[in-house]
Amino acid sequence: MEDIERRIADKHFKPGEGFLQIYAEDPDGQMYCSLLRQGRKMCASLPGDKVSLYFVDGVRRQAGADSELKVVMVWKGMLDLIFKLASLVTVHARPIPSTYQAAPLPWRNDVKVWLKDGVFDWESPDYWWLHDPEYRATFETFTFAIFCFIVLHEVGHFHNLHAVRRMERGAPLEAESAADRERLERHAREVIADTYAMQFLMDELKQRQFADETHYHPQRHIAITYACFTFALISVSATFWGFSVAIPMDESHQENFYPGHAFRLRAIQSTALEHGINGLEPSLAHVLVSEAMKQSFEILSAMSDGDFVTWDQPLQNPIHGAHYEKVCEEVRNWSNPFYGSKN
Fold first, then answer.
1. C-alpha span between 343 and 336 (Å, rounded)
2. In sequence order, what are the beta bridge partners of 75?
């Protein structure tokens, strides 16, 4: 074991965990290899010192960054959750072929229970979208998008120097407790990392889906931008809803439960509506973003058996809205002034 791996293991691993061993001949081996290769490519784009990506063989649904060791880690439990979310979106984003309409879906009894406790079976015939070439391609693209967003989120913490700024932050204001100040700052850091990840996720999707189109007419630019944003928004919406089910943010110390994941999605949507996407004219961008939000909402409502509608409702609570406004004000204290560029 290399020295950096030993330090990672000593600092972050629980008993029984280790670095994930990938075997290409296994049913899931090629997918792990592809994701690890893409993730390392993204980590290499981080300015400054080299950042390494590691997969951890452990059941925790977790991804994390260590600024001291300059590593990003993704646990196998998180990768399994990504595969489940990509499966849900794949099946509900397009009509099910008549050949498979009678096939029982793995989550048929309770989608939330399956997300939290189900076993992802790469070889089961019930997972027909893994064996149908056309649907397998859709599944792999959604897997790619969700995985990229999670890794880019961790890269966003590096890019915005969050570890350094946490050590430099001042004392809380007289009218607030240290716990309230820490919670506010933590929510602001997550929003910044999410927004960073969404921006560059569109770049990754464009390179994957439209790699052959380097020069094209402005109308084609609009179509490609809309396609990438819609795909990204559906993937990110599924991620946040899935996280709220399987790995909810710990807000138990708050008097009123704050829907952190729902507000993080709202922040991404609001940023796109307010600032536009990919250099498009503002009014046009607003129309495209609104249409993408509508399409995403329909898919998420179907795949969650209607839970996505209920999940979104607490955003209307004035108490939560007031906290979200404070988070937005706090964002500027945690942003990199060179935010718009990877390098």
1. 12
2. 56
Q: Where are the beta strands (DSSP E) in 92-161?
A: none
Q: What is the dihedral of CA 206, 208, 213, 215, to 10 degrees?
A: 40
Tokens (6 digits) for 261: 């994941």
Report CA Rg, the chain: 20
In total, the chain counts a number of residues equal to: 343
Q: At 245, list the tokens.
A: 């089910």
Angle at the Cα of 281 from the Cα atoms of 210 and 217, rounded to 5 degrees: 40
Q: On the CB side of 93, how many CA atoms lie within 13 Å of its CA?
A: 21
71-75/63-66 β-pairing: antiparallel
pLDDT band at 343 (very low <50, low <70, confident <90, very high): very low
Tell me the per-residue pLDDT of 5-45, one tens digit each, with 9 for 90 and over.
999 999 999 999 999 999 989 989 999 999 999 899 888 87
